[in-house]
Amino acid sequence: METMHSDIRQTIYLDNAATTWPKPSVVYEEMLRFQRDDAGSPNRAGHRKAAAAERVVNKTREQLASLLGAADPRQIILCFNCTDALNMGIKGVLREGDHVITTAVDHNSVQRPLQAMVDRRFISLTRVPVGSSGMIDPDDIVAAVTPQTRLIATLHASNVTGMIQPVEQIGRIAREKDVLFLLDAAQSVGLLDVNVEAMNIDLLAFPGHKALLGPAGTGALYVGPQVEMQPWREGGTGGDSAFPTQPENMPTFLESGTHNTVGLAGLSAALSTLDVSKARSHEKTLLGRVFRQLDDPAFHIYMPQDFAHRVGVVSFQVKGKEPSEVARILDEANNIAVRPGLHCAPYMHQAMGSFPQGALRLSLGWANTIEQIDCLGEVLRKIAMCP
Predict the structure, then answer these.
(1) Contact, 336 vs 12, CB < 8 A?
(2) Which helix (H) or strand (E) element contains residue 128?
(3) What confidence tens digit (pLDDT) does each residue in 119-145 have?
(4) What is the rounded CA–CA span in Å between residue 184 and residue 188?
């Protein structure tokens, strides 16, 4: 593990499901170098700095395609975050009268655009419930399919409980039913093996700033070759300015406007150091320590303690204490960062019985240590004992 400056050593940051912090030092260094030396506008000029920026864009696209098992890098659409990618996918493929299946596990980045379409009577929607184990039952997906179903949209790993959903089965169902499958991989890409071909994924949305360890303002949408969609944004694309409408070649068709080239330089640097297997192993070690520290009657953990079926996200309560108050004490008195509330997933909290007050969520990252988890447990026990 690389050397960290004093502020990082003193801070116990456990909100990595929101964004990872710190980033590997190579990310900061490459972003600064690129901004200083090469930050031209890709595809928009004939000079060296524009060419350097274009190389960064192309390299990042190729790295992501390789990571995901995509056959063609042009299927990787570079976005500004996972929400941007999800909106692009959802609004790009749905047509009036379509039926969509989603689940109670899903984040508001899926729920809200779909619900807005329902409210406009543009689509119909079935929201499949989640069981007491925190898992989607694929049989419920099958039962929800109708002749009008165009899209199944769900997430890979819950941002509330960390539970890893049976997406391989859901992908097979979608392919058998000739329905598009959109996967929200915000909490899984970079931690779990994701292969778009093997998992029958048509649309895959993910951020660059979480487990991929890149900066904010980066993300991507994989668009399978069989997907027909409309552009989420239209405008300048650089070298093909004579067309009166959006050029239809990919990825230009879905990538209007100037890329976040500085962010992509940082993401590319992060990808060059990424080791998914090592990251997952470290996460499992820390998860074991978390459950050991929270194995106390004063705490209630939501969903089963199954390391094989969850990523490094744990939601819990300190009995008798408001989550927001516990989080405030952790932050202000102990420099420990966790996240209280509903985590942009109200239907999941309803299913867990933690709505409307929410829960405390800790989420693990590459820079966390066993010692930090032990410190968290000690502080939480002291808080639990206070009247």
Answers:
(1) yes
(2) strand 124-128
(3) 999 999 999 999 888 999 999 999 999
(4) 9
